[in-house]
Amino acid sequence: MGFFNKLISTGSSLFTKDTPDYSYGLIKKLGVVTMLQTERWKEFESTILSLGSEDLTRLLDGICLTDKYEVTLRNYFTSVKSEVKELVAGSYYLFLAWDRRGTNVGASLTGEQIDGFTYYLGEANRNFSEHFSTPILEAESFARLVRVYMGFSDTEAAQSAFANAVHLVPDHLLAHLNYFKVTSPKWLGDLETMQKFVTHIQHNSLKNLLQLMFLVEAYSDIFSNNSVKDKAVLQKQHGEFIADILAITVAPTDDSLLSIYTRNYLACLYRILGHEKEESGLKKQLEGRRTNYPWAYFGWN
């Protein structure tokens, strides 16, 4: 399938000024908004450099996957020359690329949408191609490059970026999330490729998340708003796999980004399967911790 004949899988139109906090409290905990508003760039960058891999992803998502901080971020971009600035700028421009593209099927995109998409993908690519001095920063840049190359429909480059990211940080969450999308039928892969990728993950908790993601992704491909019919098809195609996954899955209780995603996908699978009691049991843990996907696939809240 060609470059512009893909469906967007991130739902950029959902990232608006009213977007939830995708740092899930980390922005507030670190006092990042005050740093940005008062132009304390060195403190802001020192804070970023102090973060581990997962919290770095979490913070960048919180400040970059929204236009809420646009003015302060652009001020930062023009005031500083540093590797941290390149990583932040790339993350923000990648958001803008998908935002400019919108959610239409590729063939229905306007020239303006295509131009905005390709321009900001190119800007993000340039930022992420800078040299980064630490494995955590470099792995994060490669993880986000996976999504850049997905936008360009370059499977080989996306695979290379993923390999580089996990070489540096083997259980890098964002690298796996982004490459999972590359392997999906909506983009550059198919169900067989996606399942093969998921089953070869070595890290148990990460593998568990991706297995849940696979089942939800498979359901999204047959989703027709007829829940009885759709569930029956899913059970027929993947019933044994569903039983195996649910048998070993226990909802995590910590507040890591991995656990947040796991609880969301588990709750979504429960809804798909009609397990109301089990989904209800996760409701409190999802307060203030709802991820954009998988819910946006189905228009659920």
TrEMBL record:
Key words of the record: TPR repeat
InterPro entries reported in the protein's UniProt record: TPR_rpt (IPR019734)
TPR repeat boundaries on the chain: 139-172
This protein's name: Uncharacterized protein
Source species: Hymenobacter armeniacus
